[in-house]
Design brief:
Elements: H1 14-24, E1 40-43, E2 50-52, H2 55-62, E3 74-75, E4 99-100, E5 113-119, E6 124-134, E7 143-146, E8 155-157, E9 164-165, E10 170-176, H3 179-187, E11 199-202, E12 208-209, E13 224-225, E14 228-230, E15 238-244, E16 249-254
Parallel strand pairs: 5-14
Antiparallel strand pairs: 1-2, 3-4, 5-6, 6-10, 6-12, 7-8, 7-11, 9-10, 11-13, 15-16
Length: 261
């Protein structure tokens, strides 16, 4: 790529300019482009500008192929990006010939589970994290519903063969509670019968963020309470019926666990 001056840098030595291009300019047709929107500038009136990434922008970057290596992290700017003290605008760096980052510090911080919602009518559990998560790394049996915040209470670990997850990378991960897990939860007279009996703990292996960092564990002795809770208001349906005249029995298979007819 012939970039030198077009990258936003002037050189009298064109050999040096070419070397700069080879070291600092990206190939054409970048895979991902993230345009900052809500981030804010923390430092002005200086040759160094510090931009603080807000949650929206940082999550968009983490959900892309950007920000893990110098080789995948480049920047372009428009003339509106800043002005000097004499009000001269910034020299543009075109998206087709962006500037390679001088250094990249990847995300090595464990993500946090902030809160969760449980809807037993729709059989959905929503997990809210502080950053974009890689949903394909989820280990469902690492998540445990508890009747209280302390260890030794009634609890249930989700079954990876029953409950599923919505395959979408983001700060919110949806679990679709399967029949086996739902019936086990419903059968307990103490677990998830109200918001006061619905807590969640999770092991570190429960899920990873987009850079492969494992979750900060929430121990069973400090389980977090549900934020939004809805009880099961769905009507029970009969799936099948079998009549055995020799044993004088009628066997009904229902849609969920019931206490009595």
């Amino acid at each position: 790529i012939v970039c030198g001056d077009e990258c936003g840098f002037d050189y009298d030595n064109y050999a040096a300019a070419d070397q700069f291009c080879n070291d600092n300019c990206a190939p054409l047709n970048p895979i991902d482009i993230v345009t900052l929107s809500g981030s804010r500038v923390l430092q002005l009136n200086s040759p160094e500008i510090v931009i603080f990434l807000d949650n929206l922008d940082s999550n968009r970057i983490k959900n892309s192929s950007i920000g893990t290596l110098r080789s995948n992290t480049f920047i372009s700017i428009t003339f509106q990006a800043a002005t000097d003290m004499s009000e001269n605008p910034t020299r543009e760096i075109q998206p087709s010939k962006p500037l390679r980052s001088t250094a990249v510090e990847p995300d090595n911080i464990s993500p946090l589970l902030l809160r969760f919602d449980l809807n037993l009518t729709s059989r959905v559990l929503l997990l809210y994290f502080d950053e974009t998560m890689n949903s394909t790394t989820i280990e469902l049996n690492a998540f445990s519903l508890q009747s209280r915040a302390q260890d030794g209470t009634t609890h249930h670990n989700f079954d990876a063969h029953a409950t599923t997850y919505t395959d979408h990378n983001g700060p919110i991960v949806q679990l679709n509670i399967g029949a086996k897990d739902f019936n086990a939860i419903s059968a307990s007279p103490e677990l998830a019968v109200s918001a006061n009996t619905t807590y969640l703990s999770v092991e570190s292996m429960g899920i990873q963020d987009m850079n492969g960092n494992y979750l900060e564990a929430i121990f069973s002795t400090f389980a977090i309470p549900v934020t939004s809770y809805m009880a099961d208001f769905g009507r029970v349906s009969v799936r099948s019926a079998t009549i055995d005249m020799e044993a004088l029995q009628i066997v009904l298979v229902l849609s969920e666990t019931v206490s009595a007819l």
